[in-house]
């Protein structure tokens, strides 16, 4: 019944005009008799009437909906990022339309088209595409846009960005490893999107290794299972001479590494050093604690949402880049 119920049906049931029903739906009932309002609201409930989104848009010119695109909703980083965004937007009267792109440029393109069609009031995207051309239609449609977490080339000054100082943090980590007498850095990465927070992390560690005389190696899982990673890890480790520090470039990789260490009877820091990205509160209870490079995902979401609201409210036509520091949580796994 909901699909076929119209404002005219509600008006007939309540014995009022369609204009009166429309005024109540839009909250314009200050001068309306309480009995009339009560009668219309009863008819709305009895008929299970729900106004369509397109009808509301035509009346209001605003959807009060913001589109959020994340690369991988199964990654706790993306989930907490979305929570940080929603905490701010909800207080400002906006709902979010959360879409998972599965780190695919093609999925991202389709999702953006759907958001344009929905006429959302703004978009926050954790991008998969390295080039801004993927997002330029948002400018054409006059939809405020904020890029979050990952880097995009040739981004206009009117588009806000919030990201972490990944490269600098990893360069500093390389210096710490040198000071702790490590000779090798072995990173483990997940499959890359076209743009990824792992890219500047690798760049920072490569430069640090070169500057401090350490060897640098990376294993990219490319979607392979844990058995494949175990074999690749053991082969690489056997080729290295001296003390090795293993760096999980994404939080979820840490689970695989801990399982592999257990299978191979490796202890840290006695046999091998271990570092992980992201905020894993439980990691402090593993052995004597895991050395972390910690990002505040919810704060990143908060800042991105505030940047978007500034643009939606036309408070500024020029946005800015916010670079959040990456906190080093020194623990005994190094």
UniProtKB/TrEMBL annotation:
Keyword list (alphabetical) reads: DNA-binding, Transcription, Transcription regulation
Which InterPro entries does this UniProt record tie to the protein? HTH_LacI, Lambda_DNA-bd_dom_sf, Peripla_BP/Lac1_sug-bd_dom, Peripla_BP_I
What the entry lists under CDD domains is as follows:
HTH_LacI
Q: Which organism is it from?
A: Limosilactobacillus caviae
Q: Can the keyword Lyase be found in this entry's annotation?
A: no
Where does the record place the HTH lacI-type domain?
A: 5-60
This chain belongs to the protein called: HTH-type transcriptional regulator KdgR
Q: Which PANTHER family match?
A: LACI-RELATED TRANSCRIPTIONAL REPRESSOR, TRANSCRIPTION REGULATOR, MEMBER OF GALR FAMILY
